[in-house]
Structure formats: C-alpha cells, structure tokens
Amino acid sequence: MAKNKKKEIVHLVCEETGDYNYTLRRRTGGEKLRIKKFCPRLRKHTLHVEKKK
C-alpha cells in the first residue's frame, strides 16, 4: 500500500522581473529551488527562485 506523501504548490519567480512564470507541485521540506528557466518577458533564460504564495 502506497503512503500518502504531502505535496505543496510552489511558484517559480524570475529574479530579474519578479514575475510568477511557473507553478510546481513538490514534496514539503527540503531546500528552495533555484533553476534557470525561460522568462517570456525578457525572452531569455534567467534564474528562477521558489516562492510560496
């Protein structure tokens, strides 16, 4: 029987513009994500940081 692991909804925010561009569901706990993703406003890859709303 599978255990029910808790997940939370987090948003990835562009560090340069402050836009909420991506939404993820991930397990609770752990370190904050810091990923290079595409920013549609700047039309280039920038660093995105996890933020809870």
What's a concise summary of this model?
This protein is mainly β and 53 residues long.
CATH class: Mainly Beta
Spatial order of strands in the largest sheet: 2-1-4-3
- In quaternary terms, these chains amount to single chain
The percent of residues in helical segments reads under 10%
Biggest sheet character:
4 strands, antiparallel
Number of helices: 0
Report the uncertain regions. none
- What is the count of structural domains? 1
Give the overall shape, derived from the CA principal axes. elongated
Beta-strand residue fraction: over 45%
As a whole number of angstroms, the C-alpha radius of gyration is 13 Å
Which second-level CATH architecture applies? Answer: Single Sheet
The class by helix and strand makeup works out as: mainly beta
Distance between the termini: 32 Å
Mean pLDDT score, rounded?
91
How many individual β-strands? Answer: 4
Can you tell me the CATH superfamily?
A: Ribosomal protein L33
Q: CATH fold name, please?
A: Rubrerythrin, domain 2
Task: Tell me what the structure shows.
By secondary structure, the protein is an all-beta fold. The chain has one domain: Rubrerythrin, domain 2 (Single Sheet). Helix content is 0%, strand content 57%. It is built from no helices and four strands. It has strands at 7-14, 20-27, 34-39, 44-51. It has a four-stranded antiparallel sheet, with no helix packed on it. A hairpin with a 5-residue loop joins strand 1 and strand 2 (20-27). It starts with 6 loop residues before the first strand and ends with a strand.
